[in-house]
């Protein structure tokens, strides 16, 4: 779902920010420490910060780049594990009816996520070709994430192991 933050983005208030490229004021993030001392769930932290301190802000001039070289199977497992972590952690902050909503509609996640990515990528000269070239492995990772997220909603259990895919030499 990082495509939501890919250039071009508009400067201004945002309902979400990715933890991969965000800066928090120390005093504000410490004020909601109860939400992240055990496990950092960016949605809960960002919601609490917005409620307590006002709008989150998107800054298009800030640039974050990343290049990871990992094996596909490791990347697919990582996405599954983090999807499952997201799903079961998200339930800590929602009502029972909202959990049912997530359970029912989670099978549509692959279409939703790939649709968001395609919408962003195919309207960008910089992203269109790399997006199309990476479509198959990206689809596998989106399916893995979606499966993990759905299992998180269903079981409320964390993945058996939560590993970040190891870097390999390019």
In a nutshell, what does this entry contain?
51% of the residues lie in helices and 4% in strands. The protein has 170 residues and is mostly helical.
Helix content: 40-55%
Mean pLDDT: 90
Question: Counting H and I runs of at least 4 residues, what is the number of helices?
Answer: 7
Unreliable residue stretches = none
Outline the biggest β-sheet.
Answer: 2 strands, antiparallel
Structure description:
This protein is mainly alpha-helical. It contains seven helices and two strands. The chain has helices at residues 26-31, 42-53, 72-90, 96-105, 109-121, 128-133, 135-155, and strands spanning 12-14, 56-58. The chain has a two-stranded antiparallel ribbon with strand order 1-2. α5 runs antiparallel to α7. The longest helix has 21 residues, at 135-155. It is globular, with a radius of gyration of 17 Å.
Keywords:
4% strand, 170 residues, globular, two-stranded antiparallel ribbon, mainly alpha, single chain
